[in-house]
Amino acid sequence: MTGAPPTTGVHHFSPTVSDVEASAGWYARVFDLDRLPGEARHHGDEDGGYAVLLIDRRTGLLIGLHHHHGHHGGPFDERRAGLDHIAWGVRDRADLDAWAGWLDDLGVAHSGVIDKVARSYSAIVFRDPDGIQLELFHRDG
Q: What pTM value is reported for the model?
């Protein structure tokens, strides 16, 4: 075999959050997601916590917001080993303007559209209730 076997893209994103219900409401509102019924127990640690599952019915992307009974607390910090950020792609540069308006309407603080002409991309940067950096990203060409 030459090269890695194929994938179909990102299936789900699963951050650990400090308040699973508050985060579920925020992610559902910001990304227009549907909450799946029930809770998903952690694989290999079924008694240690659970995830609330949200789905984007347009793309099939799942977001599993994890609650751990032994959560150590403290704010998210992308400078520690682990997640730095996650970015959602958008089809057109104009979609970023629409997203900026949507985030404004929801009262979600964001960077505004950042155009990096020399690198041929544009993005909006914002953070979830736990401070996890999220991006909306469009690459030209």
A: 0.86
